[in-house]
TrEMBL record:
<comment type="similarity">
    <text>Belongs to the carbon-nitrogen hydrolase superfamily. NIT1/NIT2 family.</text>
</comment>
<dbReference type="InterPro" id="IPR003010">
    <property type="entry name" value="C-N_Hydrolase"/>
</dbReference>
<dbReference type="GO" id="GO:0016787">
    <property type="term" value="F:hydrolase activity"/>
</dbReference>
<feature type="domain" description="CN hydrolase">
    <location>
        <begin position="1"/>
        <end position="239"/>
    </location>
</feature>
<protein>
    <submittedName>
        <fullName>Hydrolase</fullName>
    </submittedName>
</protein>
<keyword id="KW-0378">Hydrolase</keyword>
<dbReference type="Pfam" id="PF00795">
    <property type="entry name" value="CN_hydrolase"/>
</dbReference>
<dbReference type="InterPro" id="IPR036526">
    <property type="entry name" value="C-N_Hydrolase_sf"/>
</dbReference>
Amino acid sequence: MKIACIQVDIHYGDHKKNYEHIENKIREAVVQHQPDTIVLPELWDTGYDLTRLDEISDKNGERAKHWLSSLSKELDINIVGGSIAYRDENEVFNTSLTYNRNGEEIATYSKAHLITLMEEEKYISPGKNNALFMIDSTLSTLAICYDIRFPEWIRAPFLKGAKVLFVPAEWPIQRQSHWRALLIARAIENQCYVVACNRVGSDPKNTFAGQSLIIDPWGDIIAEGSVHDEEIITAEILPELVDEVRVKVPVFNDRRRDLY
Ligand SMILES: NC(=O)CCC(=O)C(=O)O
């Protein structure tokens, strides 16, 4: 499975511009790289314009669902749709929607750990369930940005056999070293691919770190974005490499289930 991460800048609170910009980037990725799966960053529709979410969030995700479904079908690709500001009757969630090549929704995940440092919990409600889904016959899971600091949360779907962790993010530059270290650690401890798509650019409060990463199950970086520029990074994922690493270093078998 060939993966492409679309590392972009995001127009603050302007979903119209973001849709247009990101659709152009997806089409460019398809022409230049012929990926099987495309990954977008966190809150790519609105950015962290939290105080205006009542006005700009996507009611029942309908805007994003329609767009993701028709684009994935037309272009014959899977889209891990980063995340959007998703509003139901009473609450707003930071929600990721994933579509397959037939234009069908195959996963929904709402960020479980909201970052108090960015006051996310004041405007967004936390999700409660993790995600486990098949993309082109590879069992995969997803975490959104701050979630990667909580290894016990990430672990659960790997105990059920997941092989790939997708991570849409808006990770600020001040904690760039954490971004790298945490993603590599999650790949090594779960012996999985990590596909992490971060944004670049700034909003009124933060400058973001770019450096989207694709990491193999040995913990080696196989594709990396720059810190400041928009970029499409790509890599090939080999699910059989996950099995090889799990046989070579059998940490899943060696866990002390009697102790924890
Ligand atoms: N958007 C986020 O969740 C940012 C996470 C972050 O900055 C951190 O964990 O540090």
